[in-house]
Amino acid sequence: MRKISLHGGHSGQYCDHARDTLADIVAAYHEAGFECIGLTEHMPPFGDSGMYPDEIELGRTTGWMEARFDLYVAEARSLARAYQDRMRILVGMETEWYPGCAMWVRELRQYHALDYVVGSVHHVQGACFDFSKEAYDKVATMCGGTSRMYAAYFDEQFEMLREIKPEVVGHFDLIRLHDPDYLQTITEPEVWKRILRNLEWIRGAGGILDINARALLKGQPEPYVCAPILDAAAKLEIGAAYGDDAHGVADVGYGFGQVEKLLSVRKMMQGPEASSALILGSLCG
Fold first, then answer.
1. Max intra-chain CA distance, the chain
2. Which residues are paired to 36 by β-bridges?
3. Where in the numbering of this chain does the PHP domain appear (predicted)?
4. Domains contained in the chain, number
5. Does residue 78 register a pLDDT over 90?
6. What is the SS3 assignment for 1?
7. Is residue 87 within 8 Å of residue 29, measured between CB atoms?
């Protein structure tokens, strides 16, 4: 498997829950032998409602975070030039999805001429579910139970896919984050039909699934995407790419071997029939 990470490069300079400098993280990718990486700092929030609790606690403002994102893009492009003969660096961002942000995502993408975006969902019904176990349980209660939260998540993910059209779909099943019974939950008819609908859309759009190893770092038994969904994606010939979702130097390349084995078994990475071939080629050469 080619050493590519299309979801990574969160740094302590430009993300309040990450560590280390962007330059040090990029250097770590190069030292680890990566040939192509995507830097995907989080997009600046659309209004105060899009801010995370830690950002609010630190006294961040939306204007300050927009200015910080500008600095990120400028440094990322400088690093891409510096490494151009050694490693390809793509300058992108990881999106959010909550009410009112669709146009903002499109404006950011166009204004900064980003190479690509990772489309992620961290909110359900406007509330962030992945900041803590307490936040997750609160959103589940708000939705009327875990299964209904899953259904709402995949509905909102579907909206995100259609509105943003991301090249890479970030941690497709992140909603299982604090659900020990996720293998059962995803098979419930109202959940599974939504999963298949979203996968069908990704196939039609030629998108790539992010096989996100950060789940392993956090103690999950398998990466995002879990095996049943990955099998369904493989049958649809949806492409996939490793992502370490690095939040510091120590995370770079985490779980690469495990993901490589997983994708090799399912023949999803670099398969000649994979729908991602053209996108991978255009992004990573």
1. 53
2. 4, 88
3. 10-213
4. 1
5. yes
6. coil
7. yes
The pLDDT of residue 1 is 80
- State which amino acid sits at residue 231: D
Domain CATH for 127: 3.20.20.140
pLDDT over 90 at 273, yes or no: no
pTM above 0.85, yes or no: yes
> Which are the contacts of 70, defined by CB distance < 8 A and separation ≥ 6?
112
Joined tokens for residue 22: 């962007």
Q: Where are the alpha helices (DSSP H) in 1-131?
A: 22-31, 53-57, 62-82, 102-111
Instruction: Count other C-beta atoms under 10 Å from residue 110's C-beta.
Output: 9
Is the confidence at residue 104, as pLDDT, over 60?
yes
Structure tokens that stand for 2 in this block: 């080619």
- In total, the chain counts a number of residues equal to 285
Print the domain residue range for 257.
4-284
Q: Return the residue matching tokens 């204007």.
A: 63
Burial class (CB in 10 A: 0-12, 13-18, 19+), 195: buried
Cα 31 from chain centre:
23
Tokens of 24: 């040090």
Which has the closest alpha carbon to 1: 223, 243, 227?
A: 243
Is the predicted pLDDT of residue 223 greater than 50, yes or no? yes
194/78 Cα distance (integer angstroms): 41
Kindly report, residue by residue over 131-146, the tens digit of the pLDDT: 899 999 999 999 999 9
Give 143-175 pLDDT, tens digit per residue: 999 999 999 999 999 999 999 999 999 999 999
- pLDDT at residue 268 in the model: 56
